[in-house]
Amino acid sequence: PVEEVLRAFAEPERSVEFSNIVRFSKLVQSDGNKKVVEFEMVILGQPQHFTMEFAFFPEERRVTLKTVENSLSDLHGEYRFSPSPDGGKTMLTYTGTAKDKVKMPIPMGLQKSALRETFVATVQALKKGLTAQQNAPRAAGAS
User: Fold this and answer.
1) Do 90 and 82 form a contact (C-beta atoms < 8 A)?
2) Kind and range of the H or E element at 99?
């Protein structure tokens, strides 16, 4: 269900626990509905180090993200979460833009492959996070 997926998505700092491409993830700052997280990932075989800001809007079923620090590119994106007709599943839609900062002639196909790899890894990590969330012992008094 959407609420469970949103809850699992709300902890990007735990990405290292669930993603095969994330080598390091650390919560740098948390303030209200925003989190700043530092990452090191291996994308298309190349290590990437960057810091992202996530803004969570659970009532709108969406999460926005933007680059805070990255020497290669600036990324702005949004994840939208939509329930299936029966409410038992969630459709995840991502839209985003990336702006090259280094002006290197990187083929568009390679850039798209990197974005696709990152999206697939995000979905796989989200599934692992959901499984961990469902298997976690509930606190006393929790429903």
Assistant:
1) yes
2) strand 90-100
